[in-house]
Request: fold
Amino acid sequence: MRTARAARSVSRGFTLLEMLVVLVIIGLIAGLVGPRLFSKVDSSKVQTAGVQIKLLRGAVET
Reply:
């Protein structure tokens, strides 16, 4: 009876090593995707500012 209970308790949950591996994988993905995402946001802000400048220039000239 004791051995069955001991075997069951060993297989529960995640080990520290498994959690560290998952955290490293998530960190690598964030490191690769993050800069690309932020560069897209920056370029869209530049485009938005350009459109706003054109609209303001048109409003001032009329």
User: Anything to note?
Assistant: The first helix runs from residue 2 to 10. The radius of gyration is 27 Å. Residues 14-61 form one domain. The chain has a mean pLDDT of 86.
